[in-house]
Every structure is written in C-alpha cells, then in structure tokens.
Amino acid sequence: MTSTQAPDIVDIPAISVEITDYVPALVVIDMQNDFVSGSLAVPDAQAIIPVVKGLINMPFKARIATRDFHPENHVSFAKTHDRREFTTVSIHHPDDKEKALGVEQTLWPVHCVAKTDGAQFVPELKDIEFDALIHKGTHPSIESYSAFRDIWGRGETDLPRVLREVGATDIYFCGLAGDYCVKYSAKDSVDYGYNTWVIKDAVRSIESSSTLAWDEMEQKGVKFTNFREVRDKLSSA
Ligand SMILES: [Zn+2]
C-alpha cells in the first residue's frame, strides 16, 4: 500500500542572511554665529536651523558637531596678509619648508575667532550636548575646510578616530557652508571609506546659485538625501 506521497521538499539548510550593519552618524558642520549672522554669513543660513535641530533629535548612533575655531592671526584671514577679502594667495603647510605643495587659499573676513561670540554655536543649538566636538583651523598657519583633515591632508582632526570608535558605516552631513566645509568633509568621508550622505535641505552655500559644489560631490560618490528621507530611514532602521 502506498502512503500519501510526501511533497517533494528538499531539505534546504537555513541560510543566515548576513544583514549589513547600518550605523548612521550625523556630522553638523559649523553652525556658528559668524556663518549664520556674523562676518561671513551664508545666505539663508537661518532657514536650516530648525531642520538641523530636527536631525539632531533623530536616532543617529552619534551626533558630532564641528566648529571653525581660529586664532586671531589665522592664515585664512585677509587681514593677516594685509590683502583684500575674497582674493586668493598661495599658502604652504608650516612643515613644508621647500614649499612643495602650495594651496590656493581664499582670503576671508575675520571669522570664528576661538572663544569669541562669532565662534559660538547659534543660540538654538548652543545647549545641545553633542557626542563629540571637532575644532578646525586652530593653528595659525593651517587651514582646514574638511572635518577630517587639513587642506594639505597632513594632519587629521579627532573625527576619523571618533567615527572608528562609533563603528559608523554611514555619515550624514548637514550645516554650513555647502560649497566649502560640507563639500570638503563629504568628499573626505568618501575617501575614508564611508557611505556618505549630504542632507540637502539642511545645507546652505556661499555661492547659493551655483551647482558646482554639488556636481563635484556627486562625481566623488557622495549621495544626496533630505530631512524626510532620513527621518523615514532612521525610524525603520
Ligand atoms: Zn575658517
């Protein structure tokens, strides 16, 4: 006699699907008084403050903030060279005695002098306890646009170490200015091997009508997102 034929099931061993870890970190770039309402105010910067605040309240693994934090005689100030603002000059790293690697430096108005009001976070963000604070441009002769390292790539800030300790996989950037510190930070983030996102509606640029910085980031492999997409992604992660 025949029993009911068992369905032809092949015993497939359970496959454990390796789910890639997703560890998002938020880096808030230079939300300081001088860049919002002071000597080097970025157009429409005020508008992103509530957006940035909303991002900080999202469940990122780490919330990190950077500040431009210059001495009074910083190499990026026009006044230091007795030249006109927004002109350029070639500058060298102080250890580059042969002056082998000059970088064209835009000369800015005096801004974000350490421990002055201009260097403070905007009032809406000043009481937030970030997981890490990164200071840039603290040496008189060294300029850093990137949150990772100086413009010659010779010296790192604390950011690479902080991100390693957090175990971050995805870095989300917001803040000021899109065409300088956000752009250089995001491009370096790609170079450091991270999935890199710029939250476009939480960024404003000095040259607000130009798309050059966005094109440059895109070519580097930076991805763009917005507040709503980040909120949806983090609430389902
Ligand atoms: Zn600066």
Automatic annotation (TrEMBL):
Enzyme Commission (EC) number: 3.5.1.19
Gene Ontology BP, a term: pyridine nucleotide biosynthetic process
InterPro entries attached to this UniProt entry: Isochorismatase-like_dom, Isochorismatase-like_sf, Isochorismatase_Nicotinamidase
Pfam families in the record: Isochorismatase
Pathway(s) served: Cofactor biosynthesis; nicotinate biosynthesis; nicotinate from nicotinamide: step 1/1
Coiled coil: none
Domain Isochorismatase-like: 25-225
Keyword annotations: Hydrolase, Metal-binding, Pyridine nucleotide biosynthesis
GO molecular function, a single term: nicotinamidase activity
PANTHER family, per the entry: LD05707P, PYRAZINAMIDASE/NICOTINAMIDASE
Family from the record: Belongs to the isochorismatase family.
Protein name: nicotinamidase
Organism (species): Leucocoprinus birnbaumii
